[in-house]
Amino acid sequence: MTTSRRDFLMSGALAGAAAPFAGVRLAPSWLSADSASLKKLVVIQIRGGWDYLNFLIQADHPVYQAARPNIGIPRTSTLQIEAGLDYYWHPALAPLKDLYDRGDLAIVNNIGYPNPNLSHFESEKKWYAGDPTVSVLQNGWLARYIQQGYTGTFPIPAIDIEGGLSAAFSGARVPVLTNIAQYAFQYDAATSADNTLEAALLRSNALLLRDPANPDLQHVASGIVDAVDSSALLQSVGAGYTPAVTYPNNSLANALQLAARYIIYDLPTEAYYTSTGGYDTHANEVVAAAPHTGTLANNLAAFAGALKAFLDDVAAQGHGNDVVVMVFSEFSRRLGQNGSLGTDHGHGGVAFLAGAPVNGGAYGNYPDLSAATTPYNNYYIPFNTLSTDFRSLYATVLERVFGVNHVPILGGTFPLLGAL
What we know:
7-stranded mixed sheet; alpha/beta; globular; single chain; 30% helix; 12 strands
């Protein structure tokens, strides 16, 4: 966020300035032409590496059955995706089935990158960078979009709804918050009876530079003003928001509900990022006597319920056509079960695009399990001609959601998916 992009914000006097935005949508005149025409991207990162093969399940395949005698999901427990596909939904994913059936969900099969890495840290770094060859992460792919592709005038092009800044934004200044009530300056009650006035004084003092030629002072002052302005704006916009649906009670749902508030109240922010974890299921992924239940099932139900509630909410409040959700995880699990009713780190994976603008369906190739070798618990889904390079997913989002050329941002040309 730079000083030149703050012109629309409260223009110097914050005393009482937050109140006009409370409970109302931003006037269309506040939107730049490009921001008004672009869709919003909501990224959900699944941390830990979710088990692709146990929630898009090739239940009838003899290799799947042999590789997972104790944790495999029986065909009778699954939900059909569509006629003609030989893999099925995990039963906990009924909300995703609903989205898929109405055409609002695209499955991106067998996604990954060349020379896959089994480390969470290293694999995440490659996804964050948008570069499978990166060794030291300096700029995240979304940071490069903000730096090179973002042409809007709004000073908050992205919001990270997490406990810390995602490395996808490395190199950019992005607000980070999990609870809007906490995204505010803390004042000493003994010295400040009026927090709004205190913020206005802080802001005005930052603008009164004693040495305008000093770049370090300029940087600090600019950061102070940006912090005051963005805090006031994010506290205020959408204060009257009421969800149109009942969200599940989990942290992902809370994050998506905050994104919905800003989207519904026309905040011109283009990208929202959040994450959920618990998918590193080395042990007790399933309940032994009922493999369709357990840790994975509980996590999938929480994720799917939160995603569907969010999309139903924005659709019910007139913004369904404005939002695309991208879901990914750093990798999947191995084909074979381990000795602890779990699965160990593997390669490959699955991603999703969701929302009304999505061309629903299944894209890419499901892994060829017949090519697997034993022992199955040492078999990794290979990155080969059946795979989808994750940069194609990013390229599709950059081109079809943000409307920018993906080549300079990703450093190469990648085929777009038909899902957008």
